[in-house]
TrEMBL record:
GO terms for molecular function: ligase activity. This is Acyl--CoA ligase. InterPro entries: AMP-binding_CS (IPR020845), AMP-dep_synth/lig_dom (IPR000873), ANL_N_sf (IPR042099), ATP-dep_AMP-bd_enzyme (IPR050237). It comes from the Bacteria. It comes from Streptomyces cavourensis. Keywords: Ligase. Residues 18-389 form the AMP-dependent synthetase/ligase domain. The keyword NADP does not apply.
Amino acid sequence: MLPAQSSDKGLYMGLVAERAAAQHGDRLIILDHDLALFPEAGREITYTQLAEYIDDTAARLYAAGVRQSQHVAIHKSNGFDINIVSSAVARLGAVPVQLSPALNAESVLELLRRLGAPFLVTDTAKLEGPFAGAPLGEITNEVIVVAGSHPGAISLADLAGSPRQEPVVLHADLPALMTHTSGTTGLPKLVVHSARTLHGRYRPQAKLFDMIREHETVALHVSYVHSRMPLALAVLLPRGHKMVVMNDADPQKAAELWAETRPGFIESHPNSFMEWEELADHPLKPLASVKYFSTTFDAIHPSTMHKLLHASERSSPLFYQIYGQSETGPLVGRGFTRKTALGADGRCQGYAFPGDTKFKLVSRNGKEVTRDNPGYIDVQAAGRALGYFGERERYDTQVHGGWWRGMDLGYRTEEGCLHLLDREVDSIPGIHSTLEIEDVVLGRLDELTELVVVPGPLGEAVPVLSTRDDRPLDRHRWKDATTRWPQLAEPVQMKITELPRTATMKVQRIELAARLRALAIGQSS
């Protein structure tokens, strides 16, 4: 395989929409929500309008004082205008720092301090809610609200009509965007991307879309603050795809939206696809038009892929799974069909992208890396981030001779497929792979909507699960489905809304384990 080569180009977020509008100006973006920043936009905007909104927002931010290379943290209620603001910041040559709306106030305040008095773009809901009384004036340059007004804050609404600014194109190796890690292990790390590393992430994703000959409508339910979203726009806008951008994963709302828009391509998080399994039998047949499903955030369960593929009425639909990390972008990928999905090993993440990524397995104990003796997954990627902002030493500890070690554990099959077993921090003594257990049991018990295996108060493997409509778990069916793993503790049932999650809907396993410990302490006192 060719070595992973850095990109010879840069991806400039602030110019993507403008360039796409020149060729596909009347193409539509359909929203399932209103934009707080531009409430007059409604639920449909053209590419030309998107480019205009970005240019207009950049002018307002410049009037608010934002200048080249400054940090602009974006932390507001969920919505596509997060990406409009981020693109506008990038258009000024400043650095957008995308912070999840789901982050708690304490984490956001700590990240703002780490950034060193950045601008903060937010909204009144955040300022009057979780940040009420917070010392934002002491740790930010300025606080800017996207709409309305708030004492001590600049309102973008008041800056309408500000003079437009010429776009600033920075050197391809300078910081161009910051996102953050999932936060499953504590305070998120700020991941620094450049235009060159963003283009390195773009390349394998663009190659995937180059294989799609049909001009499909693409539905996106993706975290706006993840690096995937600006890259999705960079892939889709120049190709002129009609897009459906979604805030709400509620199955009934998704069914109604897709029945109207008939997407041929859906991309989302694995947990959202799990929620949408029930749409396979929906009377509106919302998945009938879908030719391609795609997820780039985490491993997805084979049973989920099987159900969704069989809900499509297109010939030979494909479910494409990509495994990657916040620091590297996409690393390996694999496609599944109706025939292969259910029987697939859910731990097989796929194969590297020639020229863009490569991986190797490194032993933890000096013995050969095998299924029963998994090793560290070390990778090279054209899209590997520049570092962690303010934590250079922490980043460097994961670099080994030019390879990045993300602390995931796995092995390589004879066919070259990368099998992911667990993150090292999530591994439980006596359990070969918590993810493998979850794959198998979810495939056997249709009534489950979520299952995660985490260490309990005594280090035991505790299954935490949710069921459809919160129905009581059938203990006999559970026992039959888990007979292979007698070391599992008694299951703990929770409502799916009670599970702690990241911006990309991953269950925060360490936080969940901490809650189980706290519950055990409370019961024993």
